[in-house]
Amino acid sequence: MVAGTEMRESDFAFSFGVSFGCWQQHNPNFCLGYLVSFDKAFLGRPPNSSHIWQVANKTGWDDGGQNTTASPNPPCTANALFCAPFTKAYEQSYKYNIPYWLGVKAGNKYADLVIDIRTQKNQPNFGFLEHHTAQYKKGFLDGYGDSVASASNANGTYRHKGCHT
């Protein structure tokens, strides 16, 4: 609750409020406290049930989509009004994004292979992805691109995995 009050006291104009969720860096209990404080400070009233549901749902979806492990969702003990939509959205997003994170992992691995054999970034053939889901393809290409970008030298060459520059 302190964070929301501090934003009010610093005249921070957060035009969207917390309607877009509380982001992944905070647990559900912090998020509800932040929402209550933010609404009291900026709107002069506690949040209504609809606003709590909206923020909990968005936060659960965002958090579930960023979970790259097979672990269950984080505990939510804030209150039932917040925890029910948070947990449901978290579980749905986690399941929806499993192919994406598998794709990221495979893309990273494939990029390492391409870099190790010193193949140029634009030469790989990604035709083998045609039978995968859109989420997997997106994850694969994101993972591949991130790995290639982090291994790229300024002159367009790639450092070998065993070399440090």
Describe this structure in words.
The protein is mainly α. It has two domains: 1-63, no CATH class; 91-165, no CATH class. 59% of the residues lie in helices and 0% in strands. It contains five helices and no strands. Helix 3 (49-66) packs parallel to helix 4. The radius of gyration is 21 Å and the shape is elongated. The protein starts with a helix and ends in a 14-residue tail after the last helix. The model is unreliable at 10-17 (pLDDT under 50).
Percent in helix: 55-70%
| Biggest sheet descriptor | none
The number of domains is 2
Shape: elongated
Order of helices and strands: HHHHH
Structural class estimated from helices and strands:
mainly alpha
Question: Can you count the beta strands?
Answer: 0
Distance between the termini: 45 Å
Round the Cα radius of gyration to an integer and report it: 21 Å
Q: What is the strand content?
A: under 5%
Mean pLDDT metric: 75
Low-confidence segments, given as residue ranges, are: 10-17
* SS field, number of helical segments: 5
